[in-house]
Amino acid sequence: MNARTTRVLQCSAVLVAAGLVLTACGSSDDSNSSGQSKSPSFSGRGPITYVAAKDSSGVTEKVIDTWNKQHPKEKVTFVALPGDPDSQRQQMIQNAQTKSDAYTVLSLDVVWSSEFAAHQWIDQLPTAQFPLGKMLKPTVETGKYRDNLYAVPASSDGGMLYYRSDLLKKAGVSTPPTTWAQMQAACAKVKKLPEAKDMSCYAGQFQKYEGLTVNFAEAVNSAGGVITDAGGKPDVDTPAAKKGLDFLVDSLKDGTIPKEAVTYQEEDGRQAFQNGKLVFLRNWPYVYSLAEKSKVGGKFAVAPLPGLDGAGSSSLGGHNVALSSFAKNKATALDFMKFFTSQETATTFLEDASMAPPYESLYDDRALVKQYPYLPVLKKSILNAAPRPRVVQYGDASSAIQQQAYAALTGEKSSAQALKDLQADLQKLSAQ
Amino acid sequence: MATRTPPETAAKRPPRPAAGRAGRPPAPEKARRGRKPATAGTGRMAALLVSPTLLVLTVVVLYPTLMALQESLYGTKGLDPKTGFISDTEPFVGLKNYADIFGQAGDRFWNAFFNTTFFTVVTVGLETVIGVIMALIMHKAFSGRALVRASILIPWAVPTAISGLLWRWIFNSDGIANSLIGHQILWTTEGFHAKVAVIIAEVWKTAPFIGLLVLAGLQVIPKEVYEAARMDGASPVRQFCHITLPLVKPALLVAVLFRCLDALRMFDLPYILIGAQKNSVETLSMLAQNEASNVRFGPAAAYAVLLFVYVLLIALGFVRLLGADLVGDAGGPRRAKRRSLLRRTPALTAEVPA
Predict the structure, then answer these.
(1) CB nearest A395 (choices: B78, B189, B293)
(2) ipTM of this complex > 0.95?
(3) Best residue of B87, B278, B289, B297 to probe chain A, by most A CBs closer than 10 Å
(4) pLDDT tens digits, one per residue of B91-116
């Protein structure tokens, strides 16, 4: 074991050196495209910190303990932040504003990458040193800013369609719907059953908060639209996007989505589904094990999200690890990041805390699939996923989306008007 | 910060009200001593004794305020489209952040300004009425009084964030509020009902505060006054209007002032109960917090400064219009009590995001 560790260390030292040479060459070659004037040098070894949301499962501590046992001179301290993402982001920004070296490796929500990279709060990372090829491509994309890697996926997440398999079977629907129209047809059949008389068809997260951005983006992407195009320019005032938004607006109007769903966050929807009020629910994988223990345990299954003309597209969740620009001991930090994003660590997180891994092969692992039957569906969901708009001012973009989508859902604006206003808002943001 | 005004004003103007007030037990001892020229020795001693407080106030109040004022003159860092990086320095924009509230982008500010004012007026008004009623009930001697007193005061003891969560359950789409009124209102969606939800929760929580202060005021009214009134055949209503209310007025005014200052910087309740970025309930504090969290410290500081000025004006207006004795010329125990309340305020206002 010890010999292996030293070898790993030696190898990684060589890799670090190689990486440095590569990045040095790279930045001198195409400094006009990357624009990075200071090429990050990952030097210095010693104690570092890992900064993330507090972890009630205790797996993070376990993983860090493993590292600390192998590297007694390069100990990692876990700095636990509050569970609420906004406060995590706040504290990390405060740390960056004061240029403090208290935080070394940061656990970033996938949507923060652009903002942190553009402010140069995190360092550009050497692509060659991480097994990005083995990871699901959409997850890797979330760590990039202007085609440079700034954060490495540690976990992923995607939306899935939870459905009441017992009722669908009873109503004679054999396969889960892949389009919205099929879903509505299935609902109509289910609602003819006496026990499903008072049920509503579908719900997601439509309260005015980040969840609405996720659900709106999914509806637009599932109808073939985009919020920002490949170049990052807003392009949401399109017929395809309108079809997506119209699905939500019309469903709320005709009762496919119950009207109280505009107050739903993840947990409200889960409660409604578990209390037998919903036939279909869009939610994250964490719901699976909780619902298994509830009244609907054994009576539901999951499927990829439906779309307009075929399979829908999920928004991506999950966390990436990044390296604070103001940190010390960056060589240790880089090693720790490699360790923390390794397939082994990802397996531990999946087994012990049911966190979706970025590694493709784990989704096909038989033992794991037995433990988490939803893994194949989740894999499809993540592979089909579109990242939420990758803009520097993500907070503002998300607010604008929430504002307009909410106005459309509550009937304050027509969906055409809302999309037109959203396009204008996003354009104003990207002009800044 | 704003609530620093009362002590300051107190220092500046104690003699006048003391002289002009009639029918008041004279408290001239202190006032007169203040007017006498102090000897050099006592002056130095006083300066020495006051200096730790001044030092602390400078560090926790004055310095942040000045920094906020300075920050409010700077704009948002720009993005260099070529490199894709945000510039390191904030551009100096002068008073643009303030001028912006009169332009297109000002809608959100004025909406927040209106909400803040609306919440303050309505909640403080309701709280005053309910608080006085609570105080009268708590003041009555009857069996089980201790229990009633305790139960009235419980909401005040609950932290605002927790009460926000409690009320969010109550106002849930399947919550108690809806099943009581028998039809479904989606309280946490945009609209006037969201304002109503905030007002109900806020009044529930802070009416006991006014009740508590008014109760303290009631307890120092001598019983003899009521006995005399009864002898003269005054009805209970007359007794309340002509004895209780005038005599409890100083305490009530202090309570209302504190509630106003508190309500003007309302943040946690609407934030937790209804949610961030809801136009119906967004207050100035929430707006400043939102700007700051989107890394626009300049506008955030400008909003915070504007809120500070607004609070300062209201506090000044209160002191000028509604009774100069608010800041205490009366001697004895009442003065001591007010002092202790005033001392609490820096801690309270320190929460204002600036």
Answers:
(1) B293
(2) no
(3) B278
(4) 899 899 999 888 877 899 999 999 99
Q: Quick check: A26 pLDDT over 80?
A: no
Give me the residue label for tokens 């893994």: A375
Contact A419, A237 (CB under 8 A): yes
Q: How many domains, chain B?
A: 1
- Residue B195 has, within 13 A of its CA and on its CB side, a CA count of 18
Q: Would the pLDDT of B270 be above 80?
A: yes
Domain holding B159: CATH number? 1.10.3720.10
Q: Kindly give, in sequence order, each residue whose CB lies less than 8 Å from that of residue A174, ignoring residues fewer than 6 positions away.
A: A168
Residue B194 lies in a domain: yes
Mutate to test the interface with B, among A145, A393, A430 (most CBs of B within 10 A): A393
Q: Which two tokens stand for residue A113?
A: 């990458």
| Chain centroid offset of residue B252 CA | 13
Q: Dihedral through CA A337, CA A341, CA A345, CA A351, nearest 10?
A: 140
Closest CA of chain A from B78, distance in Å:
7
Does B107 contact A at CB distance below 8 Å?
no
| List of domains in chain A | 2-157+317-381 (3.40.190.10), 160-316+386-431 (3.40.190.10)
User: From CA B32, how far away is CA A7, in angstroms rounded?
Assistant: 86
Domain span at residue B142 reads: 2-16+66-76+89-349
Which residues in chain B are closer than 8 Å to A392, comparing Cβ atoms? 79, 86
What per-residue confidence (pLDDT) applies to A19?
A: 41
Contact A386, A222 (CB under 8 A): no
Residue A393 is nearest to which of B85, B188, B294, comparing CB atoms?
A: B294
Residues in chain B closer than 8 A to A263 (CB atoms) = 172-173, 186, 188-189
Q: Please tell me the distance from the alpha carbon of residue A268 to that of residue B319, in angstroms, as a whole number.
A: 48
- What does the pLDDT read at residue A188? 93
The residue in chain A having the minimum alpha-carbon distance to the alpha carbon of residue B293 is A90
Cross-chain CB nearest to A208 (options B85, B173, B278): B278
